[in-house]
Design brief:
The complex is a heterodimer of chains A (640) and B (403). Helix content of chain A is 40%, strand content 16%. Chain A has 640 residues and is an alpha+beta fold. Chain A has four domains: 176 residues, Histidine kinase-like ATPase, C-terminal domain (Heat Shock Protein 90), CATH 3.30.565; 74 residues, Helicase, Ruva Protein, domain 3; 221 residues, 2-Layer Sandwich (Ribosomal Protein S5, domain 2), CATH 3.30.230; 46 residues, no CATH class. In chain A, the strands form two sheets. Chain A has a nine-stranded mixed sheet. In chain A, strands 10, 11, 12, 13, 14, 15 and 16 form a seven-stranded mixed sheet that branches. In chain A, strand 3 and strand 4 form a beta hairpin. Chain A starts with a helix and ends with a helix. Chain B folds into two domains: 175 residues, Winged helix-like DNA-binding domain superfamily/Winged helix DNA-binding domain (Arc Repressor Mutant, subunit A, Orthogonal Bundle); 217 residues, 3-Layer(aba) Sandwich (Dna Topoisomerase Vi A Subunit, Chain: A, domain 2). Chain B has 15 helices and 17 strands. In chain B, strands 10-7-13-12-14-15 form a six-stranded mixed sheet, sandwiched between helices. Chain B has a three-stranded antiparallel sheet with strand order 9-8-11, with no helix packed on it. Classes of the chains: A alpha+beta (640), B alpha/beta (403).
Chain lengths: 640, 403
């Protein structure tokens, strides 16, 4: 046997060459779908919704439309067994600008096709691989084409297309192409994909994703119709179409019998972001050489001016001087066609060592403190909210900006680990939490300083939600499934600083709350004893019981005035309390924060008249007339 | 009811005067029955002190100051050893008890409540036991479920505080403790007017009252030569049955462990007024040693009363640590020292009044070396009456005791 195989080689260069051929991207995906977030039926559902919603939001914002998105998941056939996937139809409808007919196939039918990849601009989707991959997944698992309805022009009928995909050619195949009126008014797009999937709730589910999207995008309204509610007839459901504020005047997420609505709480679109040219620090040598090859510019000066940012002529001069050698002199006028890769490398190295200004940061659109607070207020029932937006910073030449927000107390579970919700360009990151830079920075922050419990090397424990957002023209994900932010020192540092800013405010609040609690308890104790003391003093010295009681009560109140800090302040539900904390507009403290105190006050008020009653029976009539106020108070009791 | 109200009116008038003209010893003192006898005057004085304390609080409150009262500190840190007098004395440290201090608010209230109760006692000219006082001031605070006192211990501590802060003795507050301690011997006591011949007390003996002040107790026919104080009732029974006091012409007392103030006051008065030497027969363990220490120079918590209670020349007759060998006792009577005993013994040895006493240092060291303690009853192993017929007479004869 061994002899046989050694004499006859299994293959040679020729036979091997016969097998070597192009791999289409689509085909690659079909085999490596886990790279794009389609590893299992559970995740497939989420990834589909995620890609569609991200695209919808991006499109709406670019077209300056306040987004209203409906996500509907219908169960075609339930999972035959718990271990097997069922069949679902996912339909996402937006009120975006719609898509021009001839682009539909490209956008939905081809992988790696889009407007976002070729530019450095902050947007949700980056690679343009998402929605078409979802369509392909659907096609592969069910054989059903993706159904797209879109109306780019308000007054014209909508296009209805059914799209299959040729995986070998990375080319879409349109199976149905008609015009229809079956589409909500105005412009918009609807994508419907049938796929094998598994619907579930809880961690990493579609619902969680939409909830978190609602938090980071308070300007959008999302309606979610889960499969168990999709059967309900919306007409029969509660007629409450308008989302109403609760008792505290806060518009919160509302759950109806047929749908869940994540309401819009901010009526302003986030500012439009600018597209920027790459910054030299963020460009690798290979990329640089490619750019050099591909550019339409004739001279180096033009190349630097138009292809990069932050490279002024003075720097070009400096860089070219350093890159020049005896053999070859390089100036800003050097023709690009004469640049070989060796010269290119020299210029590149010189450029990396040159002192450059940081890239412009107006390309970033942070969520904003106010918006984050509005988002958290809507989605998280807590009593204390604070948020912080850091100044833009730069990693590897890419501008980025970190934001953090914290919700504390209220209805949040107090004995569990804090919930960390992570965002990259407003998109919630649901998986691979522990690999994410933001999660690590939460662990690294010492929450004990801020009055929280924190096990060693863990997230804090307590009624806490931590939100971290990274806005950047290019978010460094650890993998293509876009689930975790890579660990750059610059990013970690900014995250820590943002968390610390929020933490300090939280610590201040917790300490104050503790003090208030303590003072309320103190007052309670004092008030309990004051009655006894004034009675004993009355016996021993003959002093007026009520007078002494009132004087003591005044003192007790003065000693424990902190307990009153929030009670006295009447007004809105979002209450500004006294002191520094309240003046800041990056903090919201809800009224319900200290419900115990009001109860205590009530009981004290009840016990008071009893003392009065006694006094009346002891003092003479003459005395009573001399003190008008106490007479008034006592007359009711006395008369009865 | 009507009577009470009129009384209150009187109170008011008087106090108003008092406020204006500070210490004005007017006959005034109102409510307290002003019999011209000594006790009546004393009660008046106490009453004045009480209203002064309350007045200070009222005045402070109305002038917008924090209500507080001074309570001398009853702790080892505020106890001084007066080597010259041979007694423990209370120092000058005074703590302020504030109402608006979370840790002190309740005590503040309790002190005032007891102040009120004491004044009521003075008015009615009656006395109450410690437990009675607890019930007197006990009620639920209006509008809450909290009781003014949780238990008697809490109340007892407050009463002691009241004693020191007013500078009045318990007797002057009309409070007495439970009777404890028995006496028999060649003496006649006049107790509240009744003559009691302590030679004719049968097997039970005369129960030493809690208040042994001259106003209540007078001595008559003190014919005994000395006092033998034993630790507990059981030993005392042995001595009484053997008519030891008759044979040796002495007074036989017993304190049921740590003697109460009444017993100590009785011993003190007999010692001071009639020059009767006091001999103590206590267990050979740290607790016995401490009983002796308290009889001799007073206790820490009652340091303010030492001058009325302590008997600096009291002697410690036994049981001595050498008695195991001296009396040839069997191993069975050994009770080994536990860690607590050892710790306590070392503590006692370090007390300043023992520290320079070589005899005592030797005694405690010997006990620690022995590694065991002995009870007085251990002598019974020799013979039922060994202690009364041999041990004590021999020690007394040989003047073999610790001082």
């Amino acid at each position: 046997m061994a002899k046989k195989s050694s004499t006859k080689s299994r293959a040679n260069a020729e036979t091997m060459a016969a097998k070597q051929r192009d791999i289409s991207v689509s085909e690659f995906f079909a085999k490596n779908r886990h790279l794009l977030g389609f590893d299992n039926p559970r995740k497939a559902l989420l990834t589909t919704v995620k890609e569609a919603v991200d695209n919808a939001l991006d499109a709406c914002e670019e077209a300056s439309i306040l987004p209203a998105i409906e996500v509907k998941i219908e169960e075609i056939s339930p999972p035959p067994a718990t271990s097997k996937p069922g069949r679902y139809r996912v339909t996402i409808t937006d009120n975006g600008p719609g898509i021009v007919r001839k682009q539909v196939e490209n956008i939905f039918g081809r992988l790696l096709y889009g407007s976002k990849f070729h530019r450095l601009k902050m947007s949700r989707g980056q690679q343009g691989i998402g929605i078409s991959a979802a369509g392909m997944y659907g096609l592969m698992t069910t054989g059903k084409p993706m159904v797209i309805t879109t109306r780019p022009h308000k007054n014209k009928p909508a296009h209805h297309l059914e799209l299959a995909m040729d995986t070998t050619k990375n080319k879409p195949e349109v199976t149905v192409d008609i015009e229809t009126d079956d589409f909500p008014e105005g412009t918009g797009t609807r994508v419907s994909i049938e796929m094998e999937a598994k619907f579930f709730r809880g961690k990493g589910s579609v619902e969680t994703y939409l909830e978190q999207t609602g938090i980071s995008n308070p300007h959008c309204e999302i309606t979610f119709i889960p499969p168990d509610k999709a059967g309900e007839n919306p007409d029969l459901a509660e007629a409450k179409d308008s989302v109403e504020a609760d008792a505290q005047g806060i518009v919160r997420t509302q759950e109806y019998s047929d749908r869940i609505v994540y309401p819009r709480t901010v009526d302003q679109l986030p500012p439009e972001t600018e597209e920027i040219k790459p910054h030299p620090y963020g460009v690798e040598l290979g990329t640089f050489l490619t750019m050099l090859n591909k550019t339409n510019e004739k001279q180096l000066a033009g190349f630097f001016k138009h292809e990069f940012c932050r490279v002024p002529p003075s720097v070009v001069k400096e860089v070219t001087n350093t890159a020049s050698s005896k053999d070859k002199t390089i100036t800003s006028a050097t023709r690009i066609s004469t640049m070989d890769s060796k010269a290119g490398e020299k210029v590149y190295n010189a450029l990396q060592n040159a002192k450059l200004r940081s890239p412009p940061t107006d390309c970033l659109s942070p969520i904003g403190v106010k918006q984050m607070l509005a988002g958290l207020l809507k989605g998280v029932k807590a009593e204390f909210y604070t948020a912080s937006t850091r100044k833009p910073s730069v990693y590897r030449g890419n501008p980025f900006q970190i934001e953090a927000a914290i919700a504390f107390g209220g209805d949040l579970p107090g004995d569990q680990q804090a919930r960390v919700i992570r965002y990259a360009n407003r998109v919630p990151l649901l998986h691979q939490q522990s690999a994410c830079s933001s999660f690590k920075s939460v662990i690294d922050t010492s929450w004990k300083n801020y009055g929280m419990q924190q096990p060693r090397g863990g997230v804090p424990v307590g009624p806490l939600v931590v939100m971290i957002h990274m806005a950047s023209v290019w978010v460094p994900f650890t993998s293509e499934s876009k689930d975790a932010i890579a660990d750059y020192d610059e990013i970690r540092k900014e995250m820590s600083l943002a968390l610390q800013e929020c933490g300090r405010k939280l610590g201040q609040y917790i300490r104050r709350r503790q003090r208030m609690k303590r003072d309320a308890q103190k007052r309670d104790v004092f008030e309990r004893y004051i009655g006894e003391i004034s009675k004993a003093c009355n016996y021993l010295t003959g002093t007026d019981t009520q007078e002494l009681y009132d004087a003591l009560l005044r003192q007790a109140k003065a000693k424990t005035e902190i307990a009153d800090a929030q009670l006295d302040d009447e007004g809105n539900f979002v209450k500004d309390s006294a002191g520094k904390l309240a003046k800041a507009d990056d903090v919201i403290i809800l009224d319900s924060a200290i419900p115990d105190d009001t109860n205590d006050d009530g009981s004290v008020a009840e016990s008071k008249p009893v003392v009065k009653k006694k006094r009346v029976s002891k003092t003479t009539k003459k005395k009573r007339t001399s003190k008008k106020t106490s007479k008034k108070a006592a007359s009711g009791l006395f008369g009865g | 009811m009507a009577k009470k109200i009129t009384k209150k009116k009187v109170v008011k008038k008087v106090t108003k005067k008092k406020v204006t003209s500070k210490i004005n010893n007017e006959p005034a003192l109102r409510t307290v029955p002003s019999d011209s006898n000594k006790a009546g005057k004393r009660d008046q004085k106490t009453s004045v002190k009480l209203s002064k304390m309350a007045n200070g609080i009222v005045k402070a409150v109305h002038s917008d100051k924090e209500p507080e009262m001074d309570v001398p500190i009853r702790a080892a840190s505020n106890t001084n050893w007066n080597a010259k007098k041979g007694i423990l004395e209370m120092g000058d440290s005074v703590g302020t008890r504030q109402l608006f201090n979370l840790g002190q608010a309740r005590k503040f209230m309790q002190t005032l409540l007891h102040g009120k109760s004491v004044d009521e006692l003075l008015v009615a000219d009656k006395t109450l036991s410690l437990r009675g006082m607890f019930y007197k001031s006990l009620h639920t605070i209006e509008g809450t479920k909290e009781k003014t006192f949780d238990d008697q211990t809490e109340s007892d501590g407050i009463l002691e505080d009241l004693e020191v802060s007013l500078g009045s003795l318990r007797e002057e507050l009309h409070i007495f403790a439970k009777k404890r301690g028995t006496m028999v011997g060649n003496i006649t006591v006049v107790d509240n007017g009744d003559e009691i011949n302590c030679k004719k007390m049968g097997s039970g003996g005369y129960a030493i009252p809690s208040i042994c002040e001259p106003e209540v107790i007078q001595f008559k026919n003190v014919k005994a030569d000395f006092i033998l104080h034993v630790e507990k009732d059981t030993v005392w029974q042995r001595f009484n049955e053997d008519r030891f006091w008759e044979k040796h012409n002495c007074i036989l007392t017993e304190g049921s462990g740590q003697p109460t103030r009444g017993v100590r006051r009785m011993l003190h008065r007999l010692n001071k007024e009639h020059k009767l030497p006091v001999y103590c027969l206590l267990d050979c363990d740290p607790w016995g040693h401490y009983i002796y220490s308290v009889i001799k120079q007073g206790s820490i918590s009652l340091a303010f009363e030492s001058s009325r209670l302590a008997i600096p020349d009291a002697k410690y007759l036994g049981i001595r640590s050498i008695d195991f060998e001296r009396c040839g006792l069997s191993d069975d009577v050994k009770i080994s020292l536990n860690d607590r005993d050892i710790k306590r013994a070392k503590q006692i040895a370090a007390y300043p009044w023992f520290e320079k006493n070589k005899q005592w240092q030797k005694e405690i060291k010997q006990m620690l070396n022995n590694g065991f303690k002995m009870e007085v009853e251990s002598l019974i192993t020799k013979d039922i009456s060994y202690v009364t017929e041999e041990y004590v007479p021999a020690r007394l004869k040989a003047k073999d005791w610790l001082g």
